[in-house]
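Recap for those who missed Tuesday's class. We walked through two folding examples back to back. For each one, the amino acid string is listed first and its predicted structure tokens come directly after. Nothing is annotated here on purpose, so try labeling regions yourself before you check the end of the notes.
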Amino acid sequence: MDWYLDVWRKYAEFDGRSRRKEYWMFALFNFLIVMALAIVGVFGIASMEHGSGIGGVLFIPLALYFLAFIIPGLAVHVRRFHDIGKSGWMVLLFMVLGIIPLVGFIAAIVQLVWLCTDSDPGTNEYGPSPKYPDLAGAVAGSAGFTSMGFNAQMPAFTSTDNFGYCKNCGTKFQDTSPFCNHCGDHH
């Protein structure tokens, strides 16, 4: 459940990277909450037929939840794109393309494939990989990496290569404290 709380802790943090697990578990948890709140709202509408006056009022929690998770949902989506080396602006592009009927369907498939793609190992332009924290100093595509994975001559990386990100959890440093604000690890 810590993955869900991590997304809410990084409420409007659009920089950095998020693993597949963080993104998809957040999506699943939100889907289940939305379904539960929608069922409560439907019971409210059904109760109107039986003379009760609550009706559509029970849809208010659903609307409030939608408003609450728009920003963290977009933030984790952008960070997920960053994790595979794509710009976060691609999320906006996919939203715009989603309006066009056939193009939107194709864009949705491409987006789904990207969201299911494994993390870039090492550090990319958006920070170190949260999936491969031991490769914090590695840059994807540099010596030691091939298109099929790792080769035998992979260089050793020290734990001091953090580039402004926590080597333990991948959170971007916000201040000059010697400890990570997120996990408390010494850097």
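Example two. Treat it independently of the first, because the proteins are unrelated.
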Amino acid sequence: MINTVNTDKYLNELKEEFSFYSDKRELLEAMVEKGKELPKMPEELLIKENKVPGCVSGVYIKISKENNGKYYFIGHSESMIVRGYVKVLFDLLEGKTKEEILASEEKINSFVDETGLAESMLTSRASAFGNIIRFIKEKL
């Protein structure tokens, strides 16, 4: 489990990091690098109930709630770019309560728009981001 991050601070750090990339390809390469940081999801968790519907590349997320009301995530995607999205979302949401997670959605969507991340994705990848957030919200 990772430490809870301050959503605004983390998003601002990512915006600054992403501002250094001169083109969309570099931004996607950065997402691939983030994806490499995502811990491996155990094979036994790659099951239908953990599969995010609507994602072209298989995306799986297992959500657990601790006694303190905070949520933690394990995930996998067959696409390294989408793994990067998953890693960023987990960094933002892990260790937060349901209310904090739900309050983060608008900030995350603004971040995707402001950084041009949505523009740099194929349509299928762009919808993956929304599908993942929707899946997490439904499972809370």
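Answers for example two:
The longest strand covers residues 70-77.
The chain is about 55% helix and 10% strand.
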